[in-house]
Amino acid sequence: MGRKAKSPVARAPKVFGDTSYFYALADPKDEHHVRALVLSREVAAAGASLFTTWDVVVECVTMLRYRLGYAAAARFLWTLEIGLTVFHPSEDDRSRAIEIFLSRSRVRALSLCDAISYVVVSRHFDWAPCLAFDSDFAALGLTVWR
């Protein structure tokens, strides 16, 4: 009988969280809500550190506020104090993200926030696995654990 392969989350000391993951966690009606809960438990069980960028925080809070209301946005902001590390990209990171956005978004819809996430994960976090439910991360060549 073969051994079950471990998830990238289980092998990673750091895991990147995208807006689509955080939103799915917060919205019980989101199609990925149950899977996001499972991933959250896997991250905790593996002892992996969850990080994101300030850009993702802003994007997520905005979505939560407009779609689910103030309380959902406030709850997410409170999680910043308990177990979520927020990375602040440098001006050089932002410049590189703009280059990526301008070169790739003409052909495929890509958000600037996702371009910044790509730069941060590839430059600063050794291509850490990403928790995301949109296709942009995989299209950029990042490891996506769904």
By secondary-structure content and strand pairing, the structural class works out as alpha/beta
Name of the CATH first level of the domain at 12-87 and 126-139: Alpha Beta
In the CATH scheme, what's the topology name of the domain at 12-87 and 126-139?
A: Rossmann fold
Supply the CATH superfamily name of the domain at 12-87 and 126-139. Answer: 5'-nuclease
How far apart lie the N and C ends?
Answer: 25 Å
Order of strands across the main sheet: 3-2-1-4
Which CATH-level-2 architecture of the domain at 12-87 and 126-139? Answer: 3-Layer(aba) Sandwich
Rg, rounded, reads 15 Å
Proportion of residues in β-strands: 5-15%
Ordered list of secondary-structure elements with their pairings:
Blueprint: H1 8-11, E1 14-17, H2 19-26, H3 33-46, E2 49-53, H4 54-67, H5 70-79, E3 84-87, H6 91-104, H7 112-124, E4 130-131, H8 136-139
Parallel strand pairs: 1-2, 1-4, 2-3
Helix pairs in contact: 2-3, 2-4, 4-5, 6-7
Explain what the structure shows.
The structure is a single chain. The chain has about 150 residues and is of the alpha/beta class. The chain has a domain at about 10-85 and about 125-140: 5'-nuclease (Rossmann fold, 3-Layer(aba) Sandwich), CATH 3.40.50.1010. Helices cover about 55% and strands about 10% of the residues. It has a four-stranded parallel beta sheet with strand order 3-2-1-4. Helix 2 (about 20-25) packs parallel to helix 4 (about 55-65) and helix 4 (about 55-65) packs antiparallel against helix 5 (about 70-80). The two termini are about 25 Å apart.
